[in-house]
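agent: user wants the full assembly modeled, not chains individually. Plan: 1) parse entity lines 2) check alphabet per entity 3) run joint structure prediction 4) return tokens. Steps 1-2 passed, two entities, 629 residues total. Proceeding.
--- entities ---
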Amino acid sequence: MTSLRLALPALLLLLAACASTPEDEVGGAAAGSGGFGNGAPGSATELGSDADFGMENDVFGSAVPGTPEDFEINVGDRVFFAFDSSTLDADARSTLDRQAAWLQQFREITVTMEGHTDERGTREYNLALGERRATAATNYLVALGVDPGRILTISYGEERPVDPGNDETAYRQNRRAVTVINLVN
Amino acid sequence: MKRDWSRRRLVGGGLAALTVPALAPAVVRAQVRLDITRGVVEPIPIAVSPFAGDDPSLRDTGLAVAELVTANLERSGLFRVIDRMAYIQDPESLRETPRFAEWRPINAQALVTGVVSRPGGGDRLVIEFRLWDVFSGSQMRGLRYDLAADGWRRVGHQIADVVYERITGEPGYFDTKIVYVSQSGPKTRRVKRIAIMDQDGANHRFLTDGGDLVLTPQIAPDGRRIAYFVLRTPNPRIMLMDLASGRSAELGQFPGMSFTPRFAPDGNQMLLTIAAGGKSDIFAFDQAARRTTQLTRTGAIDTSPSFSPDGARIVFNSDRGGSPHLYTMNRDGSNVQRISFERGQYGSPAWSPRGDMIAFTRITGGFFHIGVMEPNGANERLITRSAFDENPSWAPNGRHIIFTRENPQQDRTRLFTIDSTGHNLREVATPLDASDPAWSSLLP
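--- prediction returned ---
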């Protein structure tokens, strides 16, 4: 069982594009939160042309249903947390609602729920905090009916930031729980 | 305040150390004594002569030993080794009792001399060293080591330990190893390898190949095993490596993510954290009996345990009060006491091997600090400050601390040592970036 993350570069590009729009909250700009699944933002063409990492369709928003690309782009694979917190805010719950619906639609799929932290905090405490975040997201999905046997939780603590920066903008991206679709070999 | 130190064994590791008789009668009790119980210490001036030898190869070894002793004593911050250019008496004439009158003018309070020989022209070496009190003109220590030719570094560290102990009254810490995490590659995809080296950076060796994400190595009290955490999907686990063979095996099967391995002073008991269901708790694991005992159960994060040197108490990190603070408990989990109360987040506590202090990380005011406090929380002092200082680990004499410092501007992460007094900050050279240091006990 391995994890598939083909569309991560596309996601980062998407986040970068959103960061240039001042009125967008960075925390709310995750793929799949809000309008990305509903209509093409101005950057759609540019994203589509770059997001061809093994995707069968390179048109934004039309990845094959039930694929990791579909999940990451149209549902949103991650939720974000406040500093030293594992509380799911409204944005996070809304993303997890969509994740649960998607997972109930594609019932053969299993996922790994990765908990991550920013680098403020000791390495060991952050491993524990990451586990708490992954569990919070998992428990929410399970409460919505997803079979807990389909979700493996793991903590990466502060070891795998998506943004290497040392400021709040970076930290906000790194305090996350990511639902990764398991690829069955 | 004087403490009663048990004298360390000097015989071991195939290095036989025998006391050698004084060349001159000790006329008075040696006077050289450095009081290091005060905060700021004026380093004691000492001369370390190159050791004598009968041929150029032996003299080369004699010089190397003297330089290694010099580097160790200098780095401790407690000694000022007088420049060899100022020495009048040559190494060969120092085979006999030193002419003390020639050492007093350069203000050498103590003098280290020695001889390297190859008895019978064989493979083995004999190193004989003497520590002299220059002002009273008496021998303070004299030891003879029988060693394989490549064992001179180890003997040099042991000689430095004897000098350190004889003059400061505290055990030395030079004949030790440091295990740590070597890191390379971009921050979003760091490659980490467990590495081990002598405390002065020599004999550096990588123990893992970088294929796994490895963290928080610890070295057993006997110096023969390493415990470390492997963050591998789907089952992160604690591994135990036998240093002689290089082979690793899983510590045990635990219900959840097991991490933060710590050896008890007896080397058999271990402490670890098991995280499951959003809770992290501290467990004791008896390696011989393969028995796991849960020590905390609050529903909070309880992690980063560290044994007191007598094995009776445990200090740990917990956010049961709302934010991460330090607590102590008995080894069975009873009698829990909170010991940190200031603002910010505390973490990674380490109980000093001499029992009198706890070092920790504290994050406050936008900085990471290394701090020390007494085991009941009294007299907290922050001794470092930078963007990221964390993970303190004590040298076995409980005076020096090694820790991780990350410089975000340069994207460099390095190891540093500092005295528990807050003085004597020094970088420890490593081939690549470095974090998660753990200092061994004195090697057996």
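agent: reporting back. Confidence is low (pLDDT under 50) at residues 1-14 of chain B. The longest helix of chain B spans residues 56-75.
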